[in-house]
Amino acid sequence: QVQLVESGGELVQAGGSLRLSCAASGRIFSRYDVGWFRQAPGKEREFVASISRSGAYTNYADSAKGRFIISINNAKNVVDLQMNSLKAYDTAVYYCAAGSSGSSTSPYDFTYWGQGTQVTVSS
Sign of torsion, CA 104 108 109 113? Predict the structure, then answer.
């Protein structure tokens, strides 16, 4: 079974940076597109960024453009989300997801999910 495990979430100050990692079982990054989503308290889960299975294409939510970078580290078999210039509204549980999603930004088009990692930005 496909397994995704997120790590890297923690408490940071506004303006700071964090790098989240999504570790996957097997070679799923060669078969599936991978996305990062987040869910703040009382809010719906929202798209943050995604990367194609080849790693050639990336997509970002408007809120993430210019601040976040998604990438595949093939050597470590992880997908990272580098988050810079963090703001209070970035506070949320961040989830890694995989699936045959294409260019979709909908969580419903991603099949496999990690357990989430908490990111808290103080300001």
Answer: positive
Is pLDDT above 80 for 1? no
Token digits of residue 110: 């991603």
Residues in the chain: 123
Which has the closest alpha carbon to 120: 91, 79, 83? 91
Query: CA–CA separation, 107 vs 123, rounded Å?
Result: 29
Buried b (16+ CB within 10 A) or exposed e, 54-90: ebeeebbbebbeeebbbebeeeeebbbbbbeebeeeb
- Quick: pLDDT tens for 9-42: 999 999 999 999 999 988 788 889 999 999 999 9
Tell me if 67 sits within 8 A of 85, measured CB to CB.
yes
